[in-house]
Design brief:
Blueprint (H helix, E strand, L loop, with lengths): L1 E5 L3 H9 L5 E3 L2 H7 L3 H12 L3 E4 L5 H14 L3 E6 L2 H12 L4 E6 L2 H10 L3 E4 L1 H6 L4 H14 L6 E4 L5 H10 L3 E4 L1 H8 L2 H15 L6 H13 L1
Parallel strand pairs: 1-2, 1-8, 2-3, 3-4, 4-5, 5-6, 6-7, 7-8
Helix pairs in contact: 1-3, 4-5, 6-8, 8-9
The chain binds SN-glycerol-3-phosphate (G3P).
Length: 231
């Protein structure tokens, strides 16, 4: 499963990318508004850091406007994926932009047929929002399972399932088990993926035991050993 980071915060993107686990980035108008500053420069900077798919969302509500914005956004970098909402206008824009070779991420998907029609329109990614479904007592992970199943029934569809609105590590385990191609993850959830109390206590025990080893400076020991071997 590919990991995208779901933020427009440059510091968080840079840090998470340095861990070697980030394949792309998703942004949306809310995330951009949270950061402030020059939106376009921010998108360009993100593309330089990640060198993978970076979703940038259009804000026009008519297809003509989405297509105009999408074409311009795509000029920023070869990595731009144009994000459009799952509306009839968004479908029209997806058909035109994907026909021009511009990848589209169709967002705000909440039921399986929306995912199927987005794929038929040529979406490169579909973004089902599982956390927001869970918020209203609906089965978000179940939606991911259904979309993955439907897409696999029709191998001619090339749309990737991009699980979005991820709220906690269990969501990731569940969508990975469901076969989601991608998950886009807030930085706070990414940090939680690393942590386990047994990792911390195990590491502390190794360090304590190591203190009882005489002459326990690894760097000095190895350098001495290498010098002796190579002399
Ligand atoms: O990528 C979509 C995601 O940002 C939505 O997440 O937490 O606002 O439901 P959330």
């Amino acid at each position: 499963m590919q990991f995208f980071i779901d933020t427009a915060n440059i510091d968080d993107i840079r840090e998470a990318f340095s861990w070697g686990i980030i394949d792309g980035v998703t942004t949306n108008p809310s995330l951009i508004a949270r950061e402030g500053g020059d939106f376009i420069q921010r998108i360009a900077d993100i593309c330089e850091i990640v060198e993978g798919p970076v979703s940038a969302e259009t804000v026009s509500q008519d297809a003509e406007g989405m297509i105009r914005e999408g074409r311009l956004l795509a000029k920023i970098s070869e990595h731009i994926v144009v994000k459009v909402p799952l509306t009839t206008e968004g479908l029209k824009a997806t058909k035109v932009l994907s026909g021009e070779g511009i990848d589209c991420n169709v967002t705000l998907c909440f039921q399986p047929m929306q995912a199927l029609i987005a794929a038929k329109a040529g979406a490169a990614y579909i973004s089902p929002f599982l956390g927001r479904l869970d918020d209203i007592s609906t089965d978000g992970v179940g939606l991911i399972e259904q979309i993955v199943q439907i897409y696999s029934n029709y191998p001619e569809l090339n749309t990737k399932v991009l699980s979005a609105s991820i709220r906690h590590p269990m969501h990731l385990t569940q969508v990975a088990l469901a076969g989601s191609h991608v998950a886009t993850i807030p930085y706070g959830v990414l940090k939680k993926l690393v942590n386990h109390p047994l990792t911390d206590s195990g590491n502390a025990r190794f360090l304590k035991d190591w203190e009882s080893v005489p002459d326990n400076n690894i760097t000095a020991q190895v350098e001495r050993w290498l010098a002796a071997r190579d002399s």
